[in-house]
Amino acid sequence: MKLLIRLWLKFTKPKAKLQLIANIASRKPAKAAKIIGILIHDSDREVRRAALLAMALCEGKKALNAFTAALTDTDAEVRISAANALAKLHDPQAIPALVQALGDPDPNVCAAAAHALERLEWKPRTDAETVSYNIALGRYEAAAEFGALALEPLIKALKHPDSPNRFAIPEALGAIHDTRAVRPLIEALKDSNQMVRLKAAEALGKFKDEQAVGPLVRCLRDDFAGLRAAACSALGKIGDKRATERVAELLDDPQWEVRRAAVRALAQLGADNLPARLKPMLADPDHDVREAVVESLAKCTDEPALECIILALADTHDSVRRAAERILHSSGVEWWRTQAARNVVPELEKAAKDRDYWKRQAALRVLRKITDAAEAEPVRAPSAQNTNPAPNGSKVIEALEDLLKDPDRDLRLAGTMALAHSGNPSVLTSLQTLLQDPDQWVRSTAARALAQLGTR
């Protein structure tokens, strides 16, 4: 009779076998175990999977051996179904087979086996088991704590497209800091998953290996802006000057994150004429980029760098101004008395007429500080080496008096307050003309300024 059943099942179509399994699972006839036991070894994977689930319903713990045997099935889907069935069976006798399944070549099978072991409240006994268990569950950072022992399993997981949270593997490899991971990470720069490529570039920056320079430079032209920024940062950390010009090309990138990364990378690479390269970036539309320019010039001690930082004091955004103030304060230099401050007066005068209110106010504050310092000290004659005479306080006063004639009321107000703060008696005539200004706020501000200067 058993032979007849085998012959009948052998020539039955898979669709009919699936229907038979469904009937057996619902009715649980006397010969259910024999029929299902035959179908578990069927050539069709869907039939094998359905037979496993039916056996779990009909046989319960009696089917343990069939489930553990199915963990070595040729089809990954069947192995996953077997691991899931063993999880529901909740029999500790399945633990050895499930532990062995943690080394399965398919990450999905490893994950199913790990979840089954988790339900059985199993605890790893060795470091190798702990590494395999954590990788199967996608806990790559925990696996990386075991150092070189986790290197090969992590590289294997990185190469498999079905590994869970695969984008986190490069960071774990970077934490191990074993140079054997450099080549797999370079290969990951070509991965189809853009987040894997980005994280691989970030990890390569930690190794500072020169063999990654060429592949990272090629990433600077990638369509994914995140990868371009990560490649810039990595090249800056590696510090190979051969990448300087290619990184400098990204100062014109359409994405602000890439431009900011390029600014920082150029500083790390020690690019020649860094202040001259970065000064145009003080006009960047994004304040994060401008702030990065100021921070990148913090360690430069030459006059052009100081000029850029002083100009940043008149930025429209508060974070950029604070960064410049912090750097100048920490340097301990009285920047308002330097030649660099006097060199940027024309640019500050231009900023004092900007349409942005905050930029005008900031520029006027900087001009006042430079003016006060210039009036307190005698103007030195220009040396033979410097043919450009240093601007004195009267020139700044003239620039402020020009603001009193501007059609913009805010500019006239700013100029009035700046002149009042100067304390220079020569501005009395200019302030008196504002008493006839058409705007009442300008008239009242001028009156307060005259009173502050001691004039009725």
Descriptive report:
The chain is mainly α and 456 residues long. The protein has a domain at 198-271: Leucine-rich Repeat Variant (Alpha Horseshoe). 64% of the residues lie in helices and 0% in strands. It has helices spanning 2-10, 14-27, 32-39, 45-58, 64-70, 76-89, 95-101, 107-119, 127-136, 140-144, 151-159, 169-176, 182-188, 194-207, 213-219, 225-238, 244-248, 256-269, 274-278, 287-296, 303-312, 318-331, 339-343, 345-351, 357-376, 393-403, 409-422, 428-433, 440-452. α11 (151-159) packs antiparallel against α12 (169-176) and α14 (194-207) runs parallel beside α16 (225-238). The termini are far apart. The model is unreliable at 379-392 (pLDDT under 50).
Helix/strand layout:
Blueprint: H1 2-10, H2 14-27, H3 32-39, H4 45-58, H5 64-70, H6 76-89, H7 95-101, H8 107-119, H9 127-136, H10 140-144, H11 151-159, H12 169-176, H13 182-188, H14 194-207, H15 213-219, H16 225-238, H17 244-248, H18 256-269, H19 274-278, H20 287-296, H21 303-312, H22 318-331, H23 339-343, H24 345-351, H25 357-376, H26 393-403, H27 409-422, H28 428-433, H29 440-452
Helix pairs in contact: 1-3, 2-4, 3-4, 4-6, 5-6, 6-8, 7-8, 11-12, 12-14, 13-14, 14-16, 15-16, 16-18, 18-20, 20-22, 21-22, 24-25, 25-26, 25-27, 26-27, 27-29
